[in-house]
Specification:
Number of strands: 0
Largest sheet: none
Number of domains: 1
Order of helices and strands: HHHHHHHHH
Helix content: 55-70%
CATH architecture: Orthogonal Bundle
Structural class: mainly alpha
Distance between the termini: 28 Å
Strand content: under 5%
Shape: elongated
CATH superfamily: Tetracycline Repressor, domain 2
Number of helices: 9
Amino acid sequence: MNSKAKPRARWNGRFAAPEQHAEKRRMILREAAQAFNDRGYHNVSLDEVASRLGITKTVFYYYFRDKNHVLLSCVEIGFELAETALAEAETRPGAALDRVVAFTRLYVEGITSDLGACAVLTDLTSLHPSDLDEVRARQRRFGRRLIRLVKAGVEDGSIEVEDPSAAVSWIVSAPLMLPRLTALWGETGAAWLADHYAEFTRRSLSRAG
């Protein structure tokens, strides 16, 4: 992963082809997630997000039904980042600890990427109740997968922890402030940061300590 952050694409009219619909949609999600994190979901209007991109609200509604749809779509991106990282890590060879470490590295790379703000949203309770129920269920499924991986490490002797659930909570939660602290790690770069967290995970979970 490039240690220097890529320039953020702006909405300047060059995405006219139908195949660029997804790219414009993701640009809206990036701006919305950043605004939600900076000021809080209820303090941000769709007009504000549209203004940040230089588009009209009419254009905005071409991509999203309403504000809840925007928040839910941001949450979906966050899930994609975490679930893709775990799916890839689960296929890695070696002990379970190696796979947990691989997940941590990939996970940190994801949440420090251009769309990483979607992974650290805290206003989930602002979702419509039915959507929130589905999100919570998906969170539990993801957590169980990662807990199984940690437990596999306990069984193969590569991991030594008293409470796999608590270990997973730390692994997932500890990096979530990183997108808001770029001033602290911007010079070293996201790749260094991912390696750092991965190594810290290894030391924290391994029998060697």
